Amino acid sequence: MAVLVSAEAYLVDVPVETVRTDAMQSFIKQETLFVELACDDGMAGTGYSYTIGTGGRAVLSMLRDHLLPELLGRDARNVEGTWRALYDSTRATSVGAITALAMAAVDLALWDLRCLRAGEPLWRLAGGFRDSVPLYDTEGGWLQLDADELVSSALEAREQGWKGVKLKVGRPTGVEDAARVRAVREAIGDDMDIMVDANQSMTAPEAIRRAALLEPYDVAWFEEPLPADDVAGHERLAASTRIPVAVGESMYSIGHFREYLHRGAAGIVQVDVARIGGITPWLKVAHLAEAFNVQVCPHFLMEIHVSLVAAVPNGRYVEHIPQLRAITTDQLSIVDGHAVAPDRPGLGIAWDRDRVDDHRVA
Questions:
Q1: What sign has the CA pseudo-torsion 346, 348, 350, 351?
Q2: Which is nearest to 118 in space by CA: 72, 73, 77?
Q3: Which positions ≥6 away from 174 have C-beta within 8 Å?
Q4: For 189-278, where are the alpha helices, taking DSSP H only?
Q5: How many CB atoms are closer than 10 A to CB 314?
Q6: Cα→Cα distances 93→90, 101, 204, 255, Å
Q7: What is the pLDDT of residues 213-266, one digit of tens each?
């Protein structure tokens, strides 16, 4: 047996490493939710989730008041059954961000236990397709940076052998966005991918217009051009441009992804393991995308997504935005432009417990 006998949740504020601004918001801090689970056989697992600056305490309340008490006495090995039981117990608040983020922290802790008990790393136990994946950089492409800064960061990424860079778009005019992308393309040449991300800031007509301005620069994908609930708008955009449309970081259910894929409104799936509710539903979305012959390039959380992208055959990229270095003892391993999935048993994240405690919110 592996009966869950204790469950704890707490909140940790992790400061951002650099200024990060997009077309809709600034990334002020990462409110990080931790869940610690222990079994009667002495094994323990750690999971986490996050918000960007707001809502962390609401997620913590969901965990402490509802989800964690439901866990006690359950067999930690029954990950799928536990996920479904917790989800069914939260029907009044699902589908929604608070519930999904809370579910994710629990699910990651259960997967940590599963991998530790099996003595296997996450990338292998979740599928084991390969042990490394291509990396692209976002950290040098924020909206507040001028064209010269974008070019400098992109050239640095090329020097390191990384396979692509992402630039934030959503400047007041499309001409400005196009000029920034053109400057980077002319600097790095044709052998690297350039992605653009509008962070849900546009209407469908404006996104269609800007996509036309960006097409000459061989953009790899146009990310979150419209609000995530505008499936019809994304469908119109996808039909109007040669640039693949990327969506998913702001979607909280498998059914939402199914609708996008069924309507041809998503050319790249960017499912976020925290926002979809954990590894259990993340894998279902990845396999759903595979059935539609669509690649997966998840949003943020590179420390956990490297293992998940490595696990599935349609995983294409890991996004480089370092955020956990303040509370971990090692960093993402990068070799020849590829992020290497950790080979240690468990989720593969080496938490620095003392530093986690230092950032813990009372």
A1: negative
A2: 77
A3: 206, 209, 210, 213
A4: 204-214, 231-240, 254-262
A5: 18
A6: 6, 12, 30, 16
A7: 999 999 999 999 999 999 999 999 999 999 999 999 999 999 999 999 999 999
* pLDDT for the residue 24: 73
Whether cis (ω within 30° of 0) applies to the bond prior to 231 is no
* Cα 295 from Cα 292, distance rounded (Å): 9
What pLDDT is stored for residue 177 in this prediction? 97
**How far is Cα 234 from Cα 311, in angstroms, rounded to an integer?**
28
Residue 72: helix, strand or coil by DSSP? coil
Cα(128)–Cα(121) distance, integer angstroms: 9
Decide: 90 and 20 in contact? Cβ < 8 Å. no
End-to-end, the C-alpha distance of the chain in Å comes to 34
Cβ neighbours of residue 292 closer than 8 Å, sequence gap 6 or more = 261
For Cα atoms 304, 195, 145, give the angle at the middle one, nearest 5 degrees.
95
Sequence length of the chain is: 362
In this structure, the number of other CB atoms found within 10 A of the CB of residue 335 comes to 10
Rounded to 5°, angle at Cα 100 from 98 and 106: 110
DSSP character at residue 177: H
**pLDDT lower than 70: segments of the chain:** 19
Closest CA to 245 of 279, 218, 221: 221
Task: Give the separation between CA 120 and CA 126, rounded to whole angstroms.
Answer: 10
Give the residue numbers marked as catalytic: 168, 299
> Cβ(3)–Cβ(73) under 8 Å?
yes
Cβ-contact 35, 105 below 8 angstroms: yes
Strands (E), 260-309: 268-269, 295-296
Tokens 């922290």 belong to 105
